[in-house]
Specification:
This protein is of the alpha+beta class. It folds into three domains: 8-62 and 266-392; 67-98 and 215-263, no CATH class; 102-211, no CATH class. It is built from nine helices and 19 strands. It has a five-stranded antiparallel beta sheet with strand order 1-17-3-13-14. The chain has a four-stranded antiparallel beta sheet with strand order 9-10-4-12. A hairpin with a 2-residue loop joins β9 and β10 (172-179). The chain is elongated, with a radius of gyration of 43 Å. Keywords: Bacterial flagellum, Cell projection, Cilium, Coiled coil, Flagellum, Secreted. It holds the Pfam family FliD_N. It comes from Jeongeupia naejangsanensis.
């Protein structure tokens, strides 16, 4: 005969579960959906933010059509160009490169601070001047000012206009003063008339020029017959959008160096490729979030497979690629999309298009007021605005839902526990009655046997 003994714990568990399992299954589904939605929103926000960062980087450029500048003789100097440079060729003759004045003072020795050793005055041809009190240069307070202490005092007072260095050459201590800038205005003058120590005064009064203070002299065209340009710096910006830094002077009679400004095809294509890569990364994320499920092949549907807002976002981005901006379109510039919406760039077609319409790229991608980059950025703000964007509003909604689900789960758990305790008490009583009945039955059976 089968054991019919009542198990109060098991039966209470089963009945309480049967009563709440419908609502528990519903809550579990809703909680899972809320968690998936929250994770999907975070993933979408990250993808949109990365895309916007890429757009911002491109829109920060004056032009996406990049220029390159080269000098025919790189031994003379270097050149670079920004997007404002115009294509062309220019000739330059470097007569003289700028240099910073450098002077040396030999035979320096330590001087006593007693009596007062006096002061020195230093100045540059540009009008900069300052004084150094020799006595205050005694940093170790030994009563003497060494050449090294004097150099440190000069460095402290000069505000980088003049730097002082002490070195030993041929057994003699020398202090070298170097101007902090190039050009004729970097000429250093040291006035030692207020120095009271005769030996120091004599040493500081006999400077040896190591490097002369010179301006850079560069001719646009041939030397003497071209246009003379003279300045303190070796970096010239006379040609719009071009920076030239000259490092070596040319010899009289040398052929002028040629500056050539042309379109930097690789850099221009890289700008477009950056957009293509950024868009494709976003497109891949949108693919994952809106994909259709396929139970037979184990493919789970995306969190936003039927979300009208996200589908509208994707549609807007796709349509923006096909817009006409100033008579030019992105797909006229070597960019194409496959059937899945993935973009690719044909550099050869891009260059062909720019050869026909040099300004087409900037018309499409635009300026701060209009164009693909600006229009897309404005639209993305509707999603990414930290206060009013759709991502923020949706995240707030999901968080509210999750709090409600947590509250409902707590209430259901309490309901389960209440039912469990009620059923447990009831079945425990029933178990007790069953035990009593079993004992009575056993007693009666024993009487019958005895009779």
């Amino acid at each position: 005969m089968a054991d019919s003994t009542i198990n109060p714990t098991q039966m209470a568990q089963q009945l309480a579960t049967a009563y709440t399992q419908g609502k528990q299954a519903q809550l579990k589904t809703q909680t899972t959906n809320a968690q998936n939605t929250s994770a999907a929103l975070t993933k979408l926000q990250s993808a949109l933010s990365n895309f916007r960062t890429a757009l911002t980087g491109l829109s920060g450029k004056t032009s996406l059509t990049q220029q390159a500048a080269t000098l025919s003789n790189t031994g003379v100097g270097t050149a670079s160009a920004d997007s404002t440079a115009q294509a062309g060729s220019y000739s330059f003759f470097v007569e003289q490169v700028a240099s910073a004045n450098q002077v040396a003072f030999q035979g320096l020795t330590a001087v006593s601070v007693v009596p007062i050793p006096g002061s020195i005055n230093l100045s540059l041809a540009d009008g900069t001047s300052f004084s150094v009190d020799i006595a205050t240069a005694d940093l170790d307070a030994d009563g003497k000012v060494s050449p090294a202490e004097l150099a440190r005092a000069i460095n402290s007072a000069s505000n980088s206009k003049i730097s002082a260095t002490v070195m030993t050459v041929g057994g003699q201590t020398q202090m070298v003063l170097s101007a902090g800038q190039t050009g004729a205005s970097s000429q250093i003058t040291l006035d030692a008339s207020n120095v009271n120590d005769p030996a120091l005064k004599a040493a500081l009064g006999a400077p040896q020029q190591l490097v002369a203070a010179r301006d850079a002299i560069v001719w646009l065209g041939d030397q003497t017959t071209g246009v003379k340009m003279q300045q303190a710096s070796n970096t010239f910006t006379a040609v719009q959008g071009v920076t030239m830094t000259f490092t070596k002077a040319m010899q009289a009679g040398d052929t002028p160096v040629t500056l050539t400004v042309t379109q930097d095809k690789d850099a221009t294509a890289a700008n477009v490729q950056n957009f293509v890569d950024a868009y494709n990364a976003l497109e891949k994320t949108l693919d994952d979030l809106t994909r259709s499920g396929d139970a037979k092949n184990g493919v789970t549907a995306g969190a936003f497979v039927s979300d009208a807002g996200v589908l509208a976002l994707r549609s807007h981005l796709t349509n923006a690629l096909r817009q006409n901006y100033g008579g030019a379109k992105l797909f006229d510039l070597g960019v194409s999309a496959d059937r899945n919406g993935t973009l690719s760039l044909d550099k050869t077609k891009l260059q062909t298009a720019l050869a026909a319409k040099p300004d087409a790229l900037d018309k499409v991608f635009g300026t701060a007021q209009s164009g693909l980059l600006t229009d897309t950025n404005k639209y993305l703000n509707q999603w990414l605005n930290s206060a009013t964007g759709q991502i923020k509003r949706r995240q707030d909604s999901v968080q509210t839902l999750q709090k409600d689900l947590t509250t409902r789960q707590t209430a259901l758990d309490d309901k389960f526990n209440l039912l469990y305790q009620r059923y447990l008490a009831q079945f425990s009583k029933l178990q007790s009655l069953q035990a009593q009945m079993s004992q009575t039955s056993s007693a009666l059976s024993a009487l019958d046997t005895a009779a």
